[in-house]
Automatic annotation (TrEMBL):
Organism phylogeny: Eukaryota, Metazoa, Chordata, Craniata, Vertebrata
Transmembrane segment boundaries: none
Name of this protein: Carbohydrate sulfotransferase
Organism from which the protein derives: Danio rerio
Family from the record: Belongs to the sulfotransferase 2 family.
Domain of life: Eukaryota
GO MF entries: sulfotransferase activity
């Protein structure tokens, strides 16, 4: 009997020792990402040597992403942004060669695309404008580089978008020879953003707030969309204004919207795809920046273009460029799965080209 209790006691001590040791040998841990979700990292040799880790944000509001150190899993170090850009360009190239979504990723480099590209001949830079991702600030940078103003803070807001007076020539204003020469030799970049969050920004800016007083959005475009796409029989008055669900239905209508788009003209640039705006599969860009990591993309672009000592990107309020899943869920709540799937089908090329995750929380 005594031996039995001694054996039980010994087993208990062994279990306690194993539990204690396990605390020191378990390298799995959890870190939060910028969207508020948790992501599990398991420290293995293959994960260090064969794959570039995803960008990790240590806490909400932080401005410095990191990777796990190869020295110790408890040590973090800033990520090499050149590797991030190379990974983005590799992703872009892979998707561009995917024939199954070719029609969503390729576009002809015609005048419409060339109209979107601004030129800085003095420093050999081309910038393709993608609305609703902070383009105003990049225009200010180019205006300073072209010598119109000495610093970005001195540029009046109403001048930035006045393309007759801001000193920013468009690539479309040049001869074919000049266009090809610049496309082949200049530093080229543009900025992207989560496609659905960008659409929310476009909707708010043009149909809700309209801070630059562009009355045609509310007085011409909104009523035309309401007449064609509002389903409610109880409140179909145009005076109610455009709702986000009307906007989503219009954008997801593959064939029906084309007549309206021709009617709206260039005003639709605020919700066109990145492929339609900048032809990223047909023009070889040097850098693709992301709005969500603009705090690090901006200085990297300035350095890569060789202008870091000549101009500064305007200060960015902490956290303002982060992806906001809660806002996306709020705007899409109440919109039918059918309409969301149609919208995703239109912007699938953008999600794939720039490695934005498929919004399964909306589609499933």
């Amino acid at each position: 009997m005594r031996r039995h209790w001694l054996l039980v006691g010994a087993c208990g001590w062994v279990l306690l020792i194993l539990m204690f040791v396990s605390k020191f040998i378990n390298f799995s841990f959890r870190t939060p990402d910028y969207a508020g979700r948790s992501e599990i990292f398991v420290w293995t040799l293959s994960s260090v040597t064969t794959k570039l880790p995803s960008v990790v944000w240590p806490e909400k509001g932080a401005s410095q992403p990191y990777i796990l150190s190869s020295v110790s899993p408890s040590v973090v170090e800033p990520i090499d942004w050149h590797l991030v850009n190379e990974k983005r360009l590799e992703q872009l190239s892979t998707v561009c060669s995917n024939s199954s979504i070719w029609n969503l990723t390729h576009t002809t480099v015609r005048k419409f695309v060339l109209d979107r590209i601004f030129v800085c001949d003095k420093h050999k830079i081309l910038f393709c404008q993608t609305p609703k991702v902070g383009n105003t600030q990049w225009k200010k940078v180019l205006i300073v580089l072209n010598g119109k103003f000495s610093k970005v803070e001195a540029i009046p807001e109403n001048l930035v978008h006045d393309h007759e007076r801001n000193g920013l020539p468009r690539l479309s204003s040049m001869t074919d020879t000049e266009i090809h020469q610049r496309l082949n030799s200049y530093f080229k970049f543009f900025i992207v953003r989560d496609p659905f969050e960008r659409l929310i920004s476009a909707f708010k800016d043009k149909f809700v707030k309209n801070p630059r007083f562009e009355p045609w959005y509310k007085h011409d475009i909104a009523p035309a969309i309401v007449r064609k796409y509002r389903r409610s029989h109880h409140d179909d008055s145009e005076s109610v204004g455009l709702r986000f669900e009307d906007f989503v239905r219009y954008l997801g209508d593959k064939t029906g919207r084309q007549h309206l788009d021709r009617q709206f003209g260039d005003h639709i640039i605020h919700w066109l795809t990145y492929a339609e705006l900048c032809a990223p599969c047909d023009i070889s860009y040097n850098v693709v920046g992301h709005h969500e990591t603009l705090e690090l993309d901006a200085p990297y672009i300035l350095k890569s273009a060789g202008i870091a000592g000549l101009v500064s990107y305007p200060s960015i309020p902490p956290g303002i460029t982060r992806y906001n899943r809660t806002k996306v869920e709020r705007y899409f709540s109440g919109i039918s799965q059918r309409d969301i799937r149609r919208l995703y089908a239109r912007y699938q090329g953008d999600f794939s080209l720039f490695d934005y995750p498929k919004p399964a929380f909306l589609l499933n």
